[in-house]
Write a structure and sequence with these properties.
The chain is α/β, with parallel strands linked by helices. Helix content is 44%, strand content 9%. The chain folds into two domains: 13-323, Thiamin diphosphate (ThDP)-binding fold, Pyr/PP domains (Rossmann fold); 330-378, no CATH class. The strands form two sheets. A six-stranded parallel sheet has the order 1-7-8-4-3-2, sandwiched between helices. A two-stranded antiparallel ribbon has the order 5-6. A hairpin with a 2-residue loop joins strand 5 and strand 6. The chain is globular and about 80 Å long. The N and C termini lie far apart (83 Å). The model is unreliable at 367-374 (pLDDT under 50). The protein binds thiamine diphosphate and magnesium ion (MG). Magnesium ion binds at residues 163-165, 193, 195-196.
């Protein structure tokens, strides 16, 4: 008996504004009104400028490390634009444009990369989780947030961002399985930027698309041009509707490219062809958006000058706020980490504030602990 085909699928790839600035008027009709398009473009320019400044801050010793977002601005921004304020944004670390669009003040990101934990104390009303540096953990958090919202019958879905490399982590597979089987309102946004530090996507995923990794879990999967803010807006809007109406997750692969190094601790010239880089520079999300706006008489050189001046002002004010913040107290470490402190944690906190080595603070009253001898500390 001939084998029957029991399952067939296809992955669609959505593109509306291509690298030459050509616009699919049918697919893109009414997606982004002109006023919003101008604001989104300006926002992308501000974020690009932040990258330049942050790079210099790191090189001059004023910041620990920094991952440039350059080239990927349309992905998180289009997603944040398509979502609503009650929806969770569950980021990785290359989503500045989307986070700022939601309302995160820029100095939070600067503080984070300056090594100040207060950068991760995101204001509650923003529905943004802290940057996730361990690769992949945030996808599980997004599934949990969506489950919690569904369980409590609250409005709001969860949209999580991660890289191509993160889809090789177990966490991705657990989160995808969980979301699909429990009917959770989650959007999984994979920013496929071609590289996981020095590992190219093609040697860590043998399938022709990353999008199809979601098919095995039984969810809708789609690919889009991640440098095309119109395509991004469309696929995220569709996915959000599916999540809200049907409680179904969607996996979106946004094809993009990081034009910078992985972080300031990396030098991509050691593993990446210049030809590849140059070909992606032509697909820059800002350039094509500029062409689109120019075509509609919404952009010219003088407008760009005004945008650049505003970007300089905004970024330099944020740097001032980040660098001008008072030093944290030792106790902030505990107070930021825990919602409530039990007796044990209170003792740990107080002990840490005395700079003692594990001695009880009540035993140290009036003593200068740093001058105690080893024997005294042992006693
Ligand atoms: C669990 C874990 N393993 C390894 C690392 C080190 N690491 C940091 S970024 C990165 C690559 C991530 O690549 P990708 O998911 O494609 O994201 P991209 O940086 O390209 O946006 C790795 C392996 C980490 N942070 N966490
Ligand atoms: Mg990557």
């Amino acid at each position: 008996m001939p084998a029957k085909v029991v399952y067939k699928t296809e992955i669609k790839s959505v593109s509306i504004l291509d690298e030459k600035g050509q616009f699919d008027a049918k697919l893109g009709k009414g997606l982004i009104p002109d006023d919003d398009a101008v604001r989104l473009y300006e926002h992308m320019c501000v974020c690009r400028h932040l990258d330049e400044v942050a790079f210099k801050l790191q090189r001059s010793g004023r910041m620990g490390t920094y991952p440039e977002n350059r080239g990927q601005e349309a992905a998180s921004l289009g997603a944040a634009y398509a979502l609503q304020s009650e929806d969770w944004l569950v980021p990785c670390y290359r989503e500045n444009p989307g986070l700022f669009w939601r309302g995160l003040p820029m100095e939070y990101i600067l503080l984070h990369w300056m090594g100040d934990e207060r950068g991760n104390q995101i204001p509650d009303n923003l529905n943004i989780t802290p940057l996730a540096i361990p690769i992949g953990t945030q996808m599980l958090h997004a599934a949990g947030l969506a489950w919690s919202n569904k369980y409590q019958k609250k409005d709001g879905i969860a949209c999580t961002f991660f890289g191509d490399g993160a889809t090789s982590e177990g966490d991705f597979h657990e989160a995808a399985n969980f979301a699909a089987n429990l009917d959770l309102p989650v959007i999984f946004v994979c920013q496929n930027n071609g590289w996981a530090i020095s590992v190219p996507t093609k040697i860590q995923c043998s399938a022709p698309t990353i999008a199809q990794r979601g098919v095995a879990y039984g969810m809708e999967c789609v690919q889009c041009d991640g440098n095309d803010i119109f395509a991004v807006t469309k696929v995220v809007r569709d996915a959000a509707q599916r999540a809200r109406k049907e409680n179904r997750p969607t996996f979106i692969e946004m094809v993009t490219y990081r034009l910078g190094d992985h972080t300031t601790a990396d030098d991509a010239r050691r593993y990446r062809d210049n030809e590849e880089l140059e070909s992606w520079k032509k697909k820059d999300p800002i350039l094509r958006f500029q062409k689109y706006l120019a075509e509609r008489d919404l952009w010219d050189e003088s407008k760009q000058e005004a945008i650049d001046a505003k970007a300089k002002e905004e970024v330099s004010a944020a740097v001032k706020r980040a660098e001008g913040i008072a030093s944290p107290e030792t106790s902030d470490f505990f107070n930021a980490m825990y919602a409530e402190l039990d007796d044990d944690l209170i003792q740990q906190r107080d002990t840490m504030c005395t700079h003692s080595l594990g001695l009880r603070p009540d035993e140290l009253e009036g003593a200068d602990v740093n001058r105690r001898t080893k024997d005294q500390l042992k006693a």
